[in-house]
Amino acid sequence: DVQLVESGGGSVQAGGSLRLSCVASGLPFSRHACLGWFRQAPGKEREGVASIHSDGATTYEDSVKGRFTISQDNAKNMVYLQVNSLKAEDTAMYYCAADYGPCWHGRAYNYWGQGTQVTVSS
Prior knowledge:
Radius of gyration: 13 Å
Order of helices and strands: EEEEEEEEEEE
Number of helices: 0
Largest sheet: 7 strands, mixed
Structural class: mainly beta
Number of strands: 11
């Protein structure tokens, strides 16, 4: 079974930073895999935030470019999301997702974590 577990969320003031982590078991990142971070705010649809492929290629949603950085450690099967300059509108549950194959905007993922909450106060 593939399992993803996120951590690192919390409550911060606007302008603050967090580092979200996701550890995966059962899906080796060194293989042809796409890893993504998503978020969902109350009353809003889930949206993709960033993705990274096993080869290191990354994509970002426009509203987080320059503030968020996705990275991975293939040896540890970890994917990270460094979130800086946080804004109140970044408040959401953040989810890690993974699947085999390439990354592309709007792709579906078969494997999801339970989420970690990020709350930004202004």
